[in-house]
C-alpha cells in the first residue's frame, strides 16, 4: 500500500514527460486533447477578470475627485485577484493570465510554442473584454486615466520605465518558478498566496514609476479601449525581458532536479 502512490505518481510523471517529448517544439498535437480548449477559455476568462477587477480599483469613484493614487487599494486588489484566480483555475490552465508568465515558461520548456501563442492571444482578448466591460460600467465623468499604464514622472525616460517593468516582472516570475517547482518538497504554504503577494509588492513599489503593469495584457486591454499608446512598448519589452532573466536564473541556478529533491 505504501508503494502504490509512488508508482502512480511516477507513472504520471513519466507519461507527462513522454507526451512533451513527442510533441516537438511546436506542440501542435496538444490541440487534439479537449483539455487544451478548457485551458484557453480559462486563460481568457482569468485575464478578463484580472483586468476588470484590477483596473477597476484604479478608478476613483469617490467625492471629490483627487489626484491621489490609492497605492494600497490597487496593490492589494491586483495581488488578491491573482492569488484567488490561481487557486480557481490553476489546475486547468496553470493560470498564467499574463503573456510574460507564458513567455518565461516557454523559455524553460514548460509549455510548447503553439500553446504559448494561443495563450497570449486569448489573454489579450480577455484583457480587451475586461476593459470594455469596465468602460460600460464606469460613468464617463469618472473614467479619468482608466487604469492605462504610463510613466509617472516627466523626468523619467522610457528606457528607465522599461527597466523598472523588467525588475518588477522579474520578482513576480522568479517567485512563480520557485513556488511551482515540481521537485520542491519544502513549500508548506500557499503557492497562489505567495504569487499574489509578489504581485502586490511589485505594485506597491512600481505604481509611482510606471503604473506597475508587470503584464503586457493588463496594459494592452485599457490601451485598446482608450486608444492610448504612449510608451506602450515598454509594457511589452520590460515584462518580457524580466521574464526571460527570471527563467534563466531559476533554470540555470536554482531549479531543483529530481536527484536533488529533498525536505528542508
Automatic annotation (TrEMBL):
Membrane-spanning ranges: 40-62, 74-95, 116-138, 158-179, 191-211, 233-254
Q: Which BP terms from GO are recorded?
A: chemical homeostasis
Q: Name one GO molecular function term.
A: water channel activity
**Keyword Transmembrane helix in record:** yes
What Pfam families does this protein map onto?
Answer: MIP
Q: Which domain of life is it from?
A: Eukaryota
The record gives the membrane topology as: Multi-pass membrane protein
Q: What GO cellular component term, any one, is given?
A: plasma membrane
Keyword Protein biosynthesis listed: no
Cited InterPro entries: Aquaporin-like, Aquaporin_transptr, MIP, MIP_CS
Compartments where located: Membrane
Q: Give the keywords, sorted.
A: Membrane, Repeat, Transmembrane, Transmembrane helix, Transport
Complex and partners: Homotetramer.
Record family assignment: Belongs to the MIP/aquaporin (TC 1.A.8) family.
* PANTHER family linked to this entry: AQUAPORIN, AQUAPORIN TRANSPORTER
What is its biological role? Forms a water-specific channel.
State the NCBIfam families in the record: MIP
Q: What is this protein called?
A: Uncharacterized protein
Species whose genome carries this gene: Phyllotreta striolata
Amino acid at each position: 500500500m505504501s508503494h502504490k502512490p509512488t508508482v502512480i505518481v511516477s507513472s504520471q510523471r513519466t507519461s507527462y514527460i513522454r507526451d512533451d517529448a513527442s510533441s516537438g517544439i511546436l506542440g501542435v498535437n496538444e490541440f487534439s486533447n479537449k483539455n487544451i480548449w478548457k485551458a484557453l477559455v480559462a486563460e481568457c476568462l482569468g485575464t478578463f477578470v484580472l483586468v476588470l477587477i484590477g483596473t477597476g480599483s484604479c478608478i476613483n469613484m469617490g467625492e471629490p475627485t483627487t489626484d491621489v493614487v490609492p497605492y494600497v487599494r490597487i496593490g492589494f486588489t491586483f495581488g488578491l485577484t491573482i492569488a484567488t484566480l490561481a487557486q480557481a483555475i490553476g489546475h486547468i490552465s496553470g493560470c498564467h493570465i499574463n503573456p510574460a508568465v507564458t513567455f518565461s515558461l516557454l523559455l524553460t520548456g514548460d509549455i510548447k510554442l503553439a500553446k504559448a501563442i494561443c495563450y497570449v492571444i486569448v489573454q489579450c482578448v480577455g484583457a480587451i473584454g475586461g476593459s470594455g466591460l469596465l468602460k460600460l460600467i464606469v460613468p464617463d465623468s469618472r473614467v479619468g486615466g482608466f487604469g492605462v499604464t504610463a510613466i509617472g514622472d516627466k523626468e523619467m525616460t522610457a528606457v528607465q520605465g522599461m527597466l523598472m517593468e523588467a525588475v518588477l516582472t522579474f520578482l513576480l516570475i522568479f517567485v512563480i518558478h520557485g513556488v511551482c517547482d515540481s521537485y520542491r518538497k519544502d513549500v508548506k504554504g500557499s503557492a497562489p498566496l505567495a504569487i499574489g503577494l509578489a504581485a502586490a509588492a511589485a505594485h506597491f513599489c512600481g505604481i509611482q514609476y510606471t503604473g506597475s503593469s508587470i503584464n503586457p495584457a493588463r496594459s494592452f486591454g485599457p490601451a485598446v479601449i482608450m486608444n492610448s499608446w504612449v510608451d506602450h512598448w515598454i509594457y511589452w519589452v520590460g515584462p518580457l525581458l524580466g521574464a526571460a532573466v527570471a527563467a534563466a536564473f531559476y533554470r540555470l541556478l536554482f531549479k531543483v532536479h529530481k536527484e536533488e529533491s529533498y525536505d528542508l
